[in-house]
């Protein structure tokens, strides 16, 4: 199974990217992991058109047969252990999985409709760049839980 994180926007602040890269490297010990960063629709930022443009970019990156998991505030909230069980199920299913994080304007409805699952990281609103970091850390934690390793306490 290959796990991909498709997200909109880059960390121009430099705060999150080193940690995202560290967890991405750690994830690579357990499975094939790819981080796909797509550009924000800057020209239309803050308008519905931004979500449309970013949504089209996301949909173009999704592969046929790939399980799509949208990170959405209306999605299901899981504990770390529940996420580990979900990841374990994805692995057992044998299909590649793409987790999708939209830009600051959220995900286009077409992307959410393409998803087989919707997950929420928190009921808090958070910067999408921070959401990317939280997600890769939780994916790493999930895989250590699946393997029975001591990272999760």
Automatic annotation (TrEMBL):
<dbReference type="GO" id="GO:0032259">
    <property type="term" value="P:methylation"/>
</dbReference>
<dbReference type="GO" id="GO:0008168">
    <property type="term" value="F:methyltransferase activity"/>
</dbReference>
<comment type="subunit">
    <text>Homodimer.</text>
</comment>
<keyword id="KW-0698">rRNA processing</keyword>
<dbReference type="Pfam" id="PF02590">
    <property type="entry name" value="SPOUT_MTase"/>
</dbReference>
<dbReference type="InterPro" id="IPR029026">
    <property type="entry name" value="tRNA_m1G_MTases_N"/>
</dbReference>
<protein>
    <recommendedName>
        <fullName>Ribosomal RNA large subunit methyltransferase H</fullName>
        <ecNumber>2.1.1.177</ecNumber>
    </recommendedName>
</protein>
<comment type="function">
    <text>Specifically methylates the pseudouridine at position 1915 (m3Psi1915) in 23S rRNA.</text>
</comment>
<dbReference type="InterPro" id="IPR029028">
    <property type="entry name" value="Alpha/beta_knot_MTases"/>
</dbReference>
<comment type="similarity">
    <text>Belongs to the RNA methyltransferase RlmH family.</text>
</comment>
<feature type="binding site">
    <location>
        <position position="71"/>
    </location>
    <ligand>
        <name>S-adenosyl-L-methionine</name>
    </ligand>
</feature>
<dbReference type="InterPro" id="IPR003742">
    <property type="entry name" value="RlmH-like"/>
</dbReference>
<keyword id="KW-0808">Transferase</keyword>
<keyword id="KW-0963">Cytoplasm</keyword>
<feature type="binding site">
    <location>
        <position position="102"/>
    </location>
    <ligand>
        <name>S-adenosyl-L-methionine</name>
    </ligand>
</feature>
<keyword id="KW-0949">S-adenosyl-L-methionine</keyword>
<keyword id="KW-0489">Methyltransferase</keyword>
